[in-house]
Write a structure and sequence with these properties.
Length: 147
């Protein structure tokens, strides 16, 4: 009987240990996904002016711009579906809020580009760059979570 009880306690201890290890892995994965997403948003932001400038005069470049905008929209949606661990919920919610603004702005630019009405001035006057700056501002906080 003691042997069975000892085995049960040992099994429960091992299971809870595995659970803790799973939580650590999920946390590390989440932080990695968040920082990767922020890097992608930053790269998108740095390429957007040049893509837009080319799209103003070249129909093929306009098609490429629409594809890049749609790809960023997909990345936003994918990251928004990532489940954040408990300790990162507040930071994740901030990022989701910024994503909603960014997604709305990108949808507007897609519409403008498809209608052939996009200009660098319209892109610069949109909230895209400010929103991505806000997203970039979260990078340090996410990196601290990973430490």
């Amino acid at each position: 009987m003691k042997k069975g009880l000892l085995l049960l306690i040992l099994s429960i201890s091992m299971l809870s240990g595995c659970s803790a290890l799973d939580q650590v892995n999920q946390s590390v994965n989440y932080v990695s996904e968040a920082t990767s997403y922020i890097d992608q948003a930053s790269q998108f932001s740095s390429q957007l002016p040049e893509l837009t400038q080319q799209a103003v005069v070249d129909k093929e470049a306009r098609t490429q711009l629409v594809q890049e905008l749609q790809q960023m929209q997909t990345q936003i949606n994918q990251f928004s579906n990532v489940e954040a661990p408990g300790f990162a919920q507040d930071l994740h919610q901030k990022l989701i809020g910024y994503n909603e603004t960014l997604g709305t702005e990108i949808n507007g630019l897609i519409d403008q580009a498809q209608a052939g009405q996009i200009t660098l001035e319209k892109v610069n006057n949109s909230q895209i760059f400010q929103t991505i700056d806000q997203i970039n501002g979260l990078m340090n906080q996410f990196q601290q979570l990973g430490q």
